[in-house]
Design a protein that fits this description.
- The chain contains 13 helices and 12 strands.
- The longest helix is centred in the C-terminal third of the chain and has 39 residues.
- By secondary structure, the chain is of the alpha/beta class.
- The chain is globular and about 65 Å long.
- Helix 1 packs antiparallel against helix 9 and helix 3 runs parallel beside helix 4.
- It has 2 domains: 121 residues, Aspartate Aminotransferase, domain 1 (Alpha-Beta Complex); 245 residues, Type I PLP-dependent aspartate aminotransferase-like (Major domain) (Aspartate Aminotransferase, domain 2, 3-Layer(aba) Sandwich).
- Helix 4 links the parallel strand 3 and strand 4.
- The strands form 3 sheets. Strands 2-8-7-6-5-3-4 form a 7-stranded mixed beta sheet, sandwiched between helices.
Length: 391
């Protein structure tokens, strides 16, 4: 089926041509394992370290602080479980209730595991609610922080509704009320549009993913700022300064650095261009479907996010019709695709089940054109009309 408009950039982005070119030699001629000692291995190792230096510079870290992983999910798990594994005695972890499952699930798993061991001080978990506008409630955050808080995780920008979180204010509250706490942020969605070197500077741990900025799937990184460290989840050859064992994905790592460099270079112009297209799309849909609802204010979101609700409709049915019309969109996190439960993000923002299941996430990006958004808006209006008429 012909794709009229790909509006699912928050799930993944098209691979950049320059990334394909940069990766190609490491798929073919420069194929060696970088852990070896011979000339080919040293060449591969040099490529990994050069990529590490570039990623570090672009996100405001030192090269030794960049730990390459298999993606954002592993980076989040390493941040959460690798931090909590260092804690002795009673401890508490805190996260926002709108975090990606890659943060929520390991947080909950760690709390449940320790609670099941008799006589051993466990890990208490506090999930801080979000306001109706999709921003973490700072007063609620402050209320649960204390001297036993060892980890706080608040994402830089939400993957579903696109809201940018007040990381500087979060850090200020955490440093004042929980001096022991390690502060982690999942910056996976933010890298294409925000200056991570500035925005995540107060954070001790930062999760990144290549395929959200035009890089390959299956590679990411966790920034572990000194003097903090994490207990490794994967043991073996001791790669990544013994923080994450396993043979390096050299082609992927090179592609990651190339993609991030390109995203940072084009950020000033792309932010404005994509935001203008997002507004054009949203205005067209809202004009054609007057009772459609913008879930959060556009001014609070990443430039490419447009989350709309069509009350009375179920997003699964609407997405099927949109797909038939050639429009690629989603109901929320790609990791939760097909889930029957409503989005935990929308529920955390105070929406009821029916409201949450009426929401659709449209996300634009580098390859989105004006023609695409105009055609997509027409398909959305037609799909909504068709479902409401029962045709």
């Amino acid at each position: 089926m012909e794709v009229v408009a790909y509006l699912d950039h928050a799930a993944t982005t098209p691979l950049r041509p320059e990334v394909v070119e940069a990766m190609a030699p490491f798929v073919d001629q420069r194929y060696a394992n970088p852990s070896g000692a011979h000339a080919l291995a040293r060449d591969a190792r040099r490529a990994v370290e050069e990529a590490r230096e570039e990623v570090a510079e672009l996100v405001g870290a030192r090269p030794a602080e960049v730990v390459f992983t298999s993606g954002g999910t592993e980076a989040d798990n390493l941040a959460v479980l690798g931090t909590l594994a260092r804690c002795a005695g009673p401890a508490e972890a805190v996260c926002s209730s709108i975090e990606h499952a890659a943060v929520l699930s390991p947080m909950r798993a760690a709390a449940q595991r320790t609670a099941a061991v008799p006589g051993v001080p466990g890990i208490g978990l506090h999930e801080v609610p979000a306001r109706a506008d999709g921003v973490v409630d700072l007063d609620a955050l402050a209320a649960v922080l204390g001297h036993q808080t060892v980890l706080v995780s608040v994402m830089t920008a939400n993957n579903e509704v696109g809201t940018v979180q007040p990381i500087a204010e979060v850090a200020r509250v955490v440093r004042a009320l929980a001096p022991r706490a390690v502060l982690h942020t999942d910056a996976v969605q933010a890298a294409a549009y925000l200056d991570l070197a500035e925005v995540t500077a107060p954070c001790d741990l930062v999760s990144l993913s290549a395929h959200k900025v035009g890089g390959p799937k299956g590679v990411g990184a966790l920034v572990v700022r000194s003097p903090h460290d994490v207990v490794p989840l994967v043991l073996g050859g001791g790669q990544e300064q013994e923080r994450r064992s396993g043979t390096h994905n050299v082609a992927g790592i090179v592609g990651f650095a190339t993609a991030l460099r390109a995203a940072v270079a084009e950020r000033p112009t792309e932010r404005a261009r994509v935001a203008q297209l997002r507004d054009r799309f949203a205005d067209a849909v809202l004009g054609a479907v007057p009772d459609a609802i913008e879930t959060v204010p556009r001014t609070a979101t990443l430039p490419g996010h447009c989350h709309l609700r069509f009350e009375g409709l179920d997003h699964d049915e609407l997405l099927v019709v949109l797909d038939r019309g050639g429009v690629c969109a989603s109901a929320g996190s790609a990791c939760a695709s097909g889930a029957l439960e409503p989005s935990h993000v929308l529920v955390a923002m105070g929406l009821d089940r029916a409201q949450a299941r009426s929401g659709v996430r449209f996300t634009l990006g580098r390859t989105t054109s004006a023609e695409e958004v105009d055609q997509a808006a027409a398909v959305v209006a037609s799909a909504v009309a068709s479902l409401r008429s029962g045709c």
